[in-house]
Amino acid sequence: MAIIRDIMPAFELFQPATAQDAVGLLDQYGSDAWVLAGGLDSFDWLKDRIKKPKVVVDLSQCKELSGIRELNGGLAIGAMTTLTEVVRHPVVREKYGLLAEGAELAASPQIRNQGTLGGNISQDTRCWYYRSGWKCYRAGGNICFADTPTAINREHAILQADRCVAVNPSDSAPALVALEAQMVIRNKSGERVVNAEDYFVGPAIDIMHMTVLKPGDLLTAIRIPATWAGAKFYFEKIRDRNVWDFPIMNVASAMVVTGGKIERIRIALNGASARPLRLKAVEDAVVGKAPDAATGAMAGLIAVAGAEPLKHNGYKIPLMKNLVKRAIGGVQEATWAS
Amino acid sequence: MGVIEFATSPWGQTVPVHISFLLIWVSAIAGLAFLMGHAIWYQVAVKHAAHAEPAQGEVAADAAVKVPDTVARHSLAARLFHWIMAAAMLALLVTAFLPKVGYPFAWVTYHWIAGLVLTASIIYHIIHATFFLDPWSIWPDAIDREDALRRWKRATGESAPAPRKFAKYPLENKMYHLVIVLAGLSVTLTGLFMMKRVRTPIFTRNPYVFGDMTWGLMYVLHGLAGVGLIALIMVHIYFALRPEKLAITRSMVLGSITRDHFLEHHDPERWAPEPER
């Protein structure tokens, strides 16, 4: 497979000044158009010459897509808001520290200065077979190279794999799922709002996409309701290099504790499947119980039910179990167990 | 965009991966065009010709008296097979093609389960038809070929003797069966091998059972037969609902046809009528 790195294929570049113009262009060019946000995922694809769009719609001039404002007691974050802006925003830090933590653990300071929240949650998987340009299921072929007897699949899925075993690499996505965020999507027909957990799709539903975005769609904003403002948050990311790296797995939980018991909780985990998983069974099981190590251990066991490891990623099962345990019981109380 | 999509394998070989999914629409439109064409042709040509001269030979009087009031056409076992196969086939088409035309859902598990039901029903049918029915009654014979030629000559204005009445199955039934056998066996056999590519409780997943080229050709054959079945099923349902064929459709539900229908369309010397049991 001939890959010419560092020289992007020719494309027509559009830099619309408004979201409306951007939507018009996306509608006009449909599947020939590529949406460019911060460019950190896009330029990999383009420079490796694996994706060759005819048209690139650069959103950097759409100022209305940037910024954070209060909305109905919660927040509305423009999709083009950089991760650094999200991390530094006082209201995010004060009330939605879970998102600040998730965003701050993504990549490096330089990348967070350039990378956007919309881009971070909509980025493509890091499966190297797919990103090397092999025609796998996700690329429109008929095989998953990562799920063969000889595949190297240490970072791949243990849950909800369906032919493709790629995982979602976003750090902010599980935080948004835990915070009950909503994605605002605009296209030529109008605007629709999708719950964060429904924004991401697994291979069983759509093997070629990570999100519900279709040609012509533009993610314009992320809304965070006040529901979990000021709750007890937990975010932990496991990665190979602590300096900066994609997550092997991460967990995000928002919890309200009353009288020593969990009154309500939302917990999401990424790196186990092609979409951030909201652990509903865990939430149901721990409500009314004390947020301690015993509850965490039980939650960990529930979380990994049905997990099917590949040849090289069996370690993800105890990892997931422990992350969930710590997200509920707290790091001090929870002991690490394999 | 071509009929087949290709990819480069890890060994640098250009291999087919699957059909172009545009063929779904090609098949659906072709099926629809056939239905419309047939409906118009039947309305204009056949009905008109029916008044002009007898289309088929007469039944001998001594043979006609032996025909009972209701003639058994399909046994309960045969009918059960037909409807189970029909349900499996429709489930396979829906699960295969709805996600491709914009209605995504988790289809793979439903698809292979329906495929196994279809496979089981086909195996049952082969055994049942071979050992308990007349297996040759559904295959075109010399009389069918001769009568088809007679019909063609008469339709094109040449003179030819009237074709005989049918045996148990009209020639178009037999031809349809032949095509559905080819398409059905193609999707079934390739589908069974393709189950090695997905996780099921039945087979251990191993995509390296065959080489990339063999797999590619298998996917293409599965796809071509699959999209072909869209048109074939459309045509089948269309004929099942046509007024002049409703008696046959009814027999696939109730098992029998009337004496009058038998005498109008079938030759008792080619198909010995048995009363309904």
How are the SSEs placed, and which strands pair?
The complex is a heterodimer of chains A (338) and B (277).
Chain A: E1 12-14, H1 19-29, E2 33-36, H2 42-47, E3 55-58, E4 68-71, E5 74-78, H3 83-88, H4 90-95, H5 97-104, H6 109-114, H7 117-122, H8 128-131, H9 172-178, E6 182-187, E7 190-195, H10 196-199, E8 218-224, E9 232-238, E10 249-258, E11 261-270, E12 277-278, H11 280-286, H12 293-303, H13 316-329
Parallel strand pairs in A: 1-3, 2-3
Antiparallel strand pairs in A: 4-5, 5-8, 6-7, 6-8, 9-10, 10-11, 11-12
Chain B: E1 4-8, E2 14-19, H1 22-52, H2 61-64, E3 70-72, H3 76-97, H4 108-132, H5 142-155, H6 171-194, H7 212-241, H8 246-254, E4 256-258, H9 259-265
Antiparallel strand pairs in B: 1-2, 3-4
Helix pairs in contact in B: 1-7, 3-4, 6-7
Overview of the structural elements:
- The complex is a heterodimer of chains A (about 350) and B (about 280).
- By secondary structure, chain A is an alpha+beta fold.
- Among the domains of chain A are: about 10-60, Uridine Diphospho-n-acetylenolpyruvylglucosamine Reductase, domain 2 (2-Layer Sandwich); about 230-330, CO dehydrogenase flavoprotein, C-terminal domain (Enolase-like, domain 1, 2-Layer Sandwich), CATH 3.30.390.
- Chain A has 13 helices and 12 strands.
- Chain A has helices at about 20-30, 40-45, 85-90, 90-95, 95-105, 110-115, 115-120, 130, 170-180, 195-200, 280-285, 295-305, 315-330; strands at about 10-15, 35, 55-60, 70, 75-80, 180-185, 190-195, 220-225, 230-240, 250-260, 260-270, 275-280.
- Chain A has a 5-stranded antiparallel sheet. Chain A has a 4-stranded antiparallel sheet with strand order 9-10-11-12.
- In chain A, β2 (about 35), α2 (about 40-45) and β3 form a beta-alpha-beta unit.
- In chain A, α12 (about 295-305) packs antiparallel against α13.
- The N and C termini of chain A lie far apart (about 40 Å).
- In chain B, α1 (about 20-50) runs parallel beside α7 and α3 (about 75-95) runs antiparallel to α4.
- Chain B is built from 9 helices and 4 strands.
- In chain B, β1 (about 5-10) and β2 form a beta hairpin.
- Chain B has a domain at about 25-50 and about 80-105 and about 115-245: Fumarate Reductase Cytochrome B subunit.
- By secondary structure, chain B is mainly alpha-helical.
- Chain B has helices at about 20-50, 60-65, 75-95, 110-130, 140-155, 170-195, 210-240, 245-255, 260-265, and strands at about 5-10, 15-20, 70, 255-260.
- Chain B is about 60% helix and about 5% strand.
- The chains are: A alpha+beta (about 350), B mainly alpha (about 280).
- The interface between A and B is medium-sized, with 21 and 24 residues.
